[in-house]
Predict the structure.
Amino acid sequence: MTKTIRSHSELPQFTRRQVMVGAAGLSFAFVGCQNVADTPPSGAASSSKEMSPWVTIGADGTVKIMAPAVEMGQGSRTSLPLILAEELDADWDKVQIVPAPPIESIYGNPGFGGMMYTAGSYAVFAYYTPLRIFGAQVRQVLLQNAARHWKVPVDELSTEPNTVVHTPTNRRIDYGSISTFAEVPEIAPEVSETSLKDPADFRLIGKDVMRDELPQKVDGSAQYSIDVQLPGMIYGAVLRTPVFGGTPESVDKSKALEVDGVLAIEILPYGVGVLAETPWAAFEGKKALSVGWSIEGPGDTFNSRQGIEAFAKDARTRSRLTKAWEETGDVQSALSDAARTYKGEFRSDYAYHAQMEPLNAVASVSSDGKTCEIWCGTQAQGVAVAATADALGISPAQVKLNDMLLGGGFGRRGPRDQDFVIDAVLLSDRVKRPVKVMWTREDDLRNGRFHPMSASFVRAGVNADGQVTAWHHRKASDLATKSQDPVRFEAAGQTDFISMAGTEIKTYAIANKLSEQVAQYTGMRTIALRGIGYVHNKFVTEVLLDEIALGEGIDPIEYRLDLLSGQPRATKVVEKVAEMSNWGNTPEGHGLGVAYIDYKSQLAAVVDVTVNSRSGAIKVHNIWVAIDCGIAVQPDNVVAQQIGCTVYGLGLALSESISMNQGIVEQTNFHNYIVPRIPDVPKIEVEIVHTPNPPTGAGQMATPLIAPAISNAVAAATGVRLRHMPMTPERVLSALNA
Amino acid sequence: MPISFKLNGESVSTNAPPETPLLWVIREGLKLTGTKFGCGAGQCGACMVHLDDQRTFSCQTPVSAVEGHEVTTIEGLSSDSSHPVQKAWLAESVPQCGYCQSGQIMSAVDLLNRNPNPSREEIIRHMSTNICRCGTYPRIVQAIERAAREG
């Protein structure tokens, strides 16, 4: 029997109800929506009159283009309008990028069922074709209007940036002039995907432009929500329950109220808020609180060191029910029939996003409590509006969102409950004044939502020729998807795609495969983090595969190339990284390790390490990364993202670990949650393998390569296998001495 | 007693309690928000400013300590991003989320003020005070080398 379960990876069909309207200048709206039933309404416009435009062309030739993705450093606030501008043939110097309002029926991401959600490296991937088609449609309307104006056939016209040209009569008219007399059809002109520009003719895509917001990021003027200043604004700090599900049972406010500048203490369902005239007074007031908590649920007895042992036992013994993620062929028979089998147990600790801007938001609830304005850096604009409306019991239409730049996201700002926004909303509602609530770094850790701790048990079988015939991966972890977003969890058939993505073996030719999750219920808060399940799951896959290659006496790169035969894009990135790293010529005393992943984009990395056998410290000297992400819309940005992903992956691989005792996070700040600093960063070389395929994403793809490549390099240098992330010096020493 | 000091060349004063960290006085009192809050513990460098001619974690500096001194923030480097380090930062497209970059730039300017031609090792040692979670470190090094070269 052959069965493939891929409930989440199938993208919803992007269907378009196309309406164009002319309003306020020459505006082009476009309804691109699909199954938004699973997302709450969010100030959505239902008739064309209220419709918000995607593109507005002013008489002066200014082309305003909406940016549906938020900007957290990944660059898609610039890349998406640029894609539209390409097919519109807009003059980039005249383009103004405007953050789109939270109207999911118009601006929602087709890759997320119409949610406005900036995550998963899905922005360029999912908007690419719709935005090209829409840009081409707007261009067609301009051409038709110019044809009518000049009384010439439309097929005699062409465009140059912001200009329609009639070559036979050598006439030219700019888009701004057309906008003054243009008529906009009710139904958009038909544009098929095949009639779009040949990539060879691109003027913008594939050519680097400066990101829209970059100049403000070197002069201090970039505005994050933490920078918002409003008249009459006061400050809030919230002491949240240390364990999910807790409520404040006894609260001693007296010492907090004695702090100079503290105005009020407010009891919230999940914590205690301090309102003050200044941030410092709010923080000092919070420190002075004494709160007893009532905890519902299993969290308050949880200890992560014992927890991971229990996870590992479940992964090994299948003592509990499992849910399949990928199943092809008959893995048990194939394992029984195998000439040789390999097995391994792998572990990963909880990990923390550590976005540099601590979570915060500003909210202003009107005096009658019926409207609210919020300022926040969220990855999900519509969800932020809906969560605010729910918290206040008002309609989403009564919530005005100002989405600000994000000082890092990495997944932390995307959960359905928007915890960091609600703090400000509830406190502002109590006092009917604008309130800025900031989490301290300690709050950000204590109330963190983490990359799930995981234990995996994997068995693989090979035939007499050493080829892999069976692969069984059983993973124990909390249901991160349910914790992050119950709506999407249900929509995906209660599948935990955040934990499980990447356990599937997409590109390697393996006939019999089973990956399954044995769900854990620790009560800990888990969520997506850059690279989601791939981070742990590719550590598992790529390390065990390396062991098999060495066990079969075959070079790890040759072994992968054999498994990838017939997959030219995958083959190319592996060959490229072998060439970049001069594979096969390892410097004396060093070890080189390789990893490959299919993350829609194709990537491979080689890492060069030495290991200090006295301290257990791994020194990473070089990292080479090759990526084929299809068309690189902004190539320099693709490179920058892979460098960033690599540094992020380095931290997850070597030092980043969250532990809990009695459900309480033990790490408090950057002295005991160790992220990479500049001396930790090796020489990193990134090469893009350019192919004309549609773009497949670049924002997080290299992160999961780094840990397995390091583990494989350490094995090459020392003969010792590391199977627990992070690979701290203590763990290395203990493996070396085992 | 108000505390008075010079901020980017202008005389300012504050009634904040003397133990208040300079960071909060600059950001929320005097509304210069380019200086960022990252950790409140002198661990990340997002709050870096110059106190007279020395870089300083503003989250670790009580405002009373700057009475009569000169404080420079990212807004005081230039009025038009013309400082060589700012120009180099744009030329190398350093920022990603950008949140740490004011602090990175203030640390880099501090280095170049006292050592106009730093070696790569000196750059790395000096910049180890500042965390960039987006991982722009390689480009930070390139930008400092460019600023030293083109200064």
Observations:
- The mean pLDDT of chain B is 97.
- The CA atoms of residues 35 and 47 of chain B lie 5 Å apart.
